[in-house]
Amino acid sequence: MKNTIISKLMLSIAIAATALAFAACSNDQEPVSPEEGELAELHNRIFYDDDCLLFSPTEDNTYYYTHCPSQEMAIKQIEYYTNTVGINSTGGTYHWQGDNGYFKVSPGNDEGLYYEVLMSLKDFKPFTVAFMHPGYENSENLSIPKPSGGYMIPFFVWACRKCLTSVPKGNAEYGGTGDAPPTKPCRVCGASDWYRKSVTDPAAP
């Protein structure tokens, strides 16, 4: 009888200790707010690292460009990069959660220039991305700043060969190890054909 009581007491103590330990571990991990989660997701989609954007720079250090095969695909790319659905093809201003900032979509004013998107993201200086047809940057009557030339950064991103959407190499969302192509299909068009794309570093000497 005495041994039974002692066994039950020891079991109760063990259960209580486990519960306290679990509670302590849970308290160490502060919950992530929807705003913080959204900001982290945006960084995963448009930055190669903390400071380098996935987009190609121009001579204006606040203006970038990227390629897309059509206006329809440009809208899908914009929705992906901004983590937003339901963007109007005629443009508009959209706000992220809390004080994460906003972005403004404006239709292009030239053939081959589909959209210009001004992004004002928390903790990062505002910048504009032009979504345009491949080769538009070589047009004689270019209506955007000229592409930045010169130094080419030693790393690269992966780009979808079908819709030309770029993703960071080694991005957990797409699988792959960085040097090997993503193992998951493109979230913009569903294709699984990836190629290495170099990005020019505007800050390099």
How would you concisely characterize the structure shown here?
Helices cover 25% and strands 27% of the residues.
- Name the poorly predicted regions: 20-27
Mean pLDDT: 82
Strand order of the largest sheet: 1-2-6-5-4-3
* Total DSSP E strands: 9
Instruction: Report strand %.
Output: 25-35%
Taking the sheet with the most strands, its summary is: 6 strands, mixed
**Backbone structural class:** alpha+beta
Order of helices and strands: HHEEHEEEEEEE
Helix content: 25-40%
Shape: globular
Number of helices: 3
Task: Summarize the structure in words.
The chain has 3 helices and 9 strands, in the order H-H-E-E-H-E-E-E-E-E-E-E. It has 205 residues and is an alpha+beta fold. The strands form 2 sheets. The protein has a 6-stranded mixed sheet, with helices on one face. A 3-stranded antiparallel sheet has the order 8-7-9, covered by helices on one side. A hairpin with a 5-residue loop joins strand 1 and strand 2 (63-67).
Please outline the helices and strands.
Elements: H1 2-28, H2 34-46, E1 56-57, E2 63-67, H3 71-82, E3 92-95, E4 101-110, E5 113-121, E6 127-132, E7 152-160, E8 166-168, E9 194-200
Parallel strand pairs: 2-6
Antiparallel strand pairs: 1-2, 3-4, 4-5, 5-6, 7-8, 7-9
Key attributes of the depicted protein:
globular, 3 helices, three-stranded antiparallel beta sheet, 205 residues
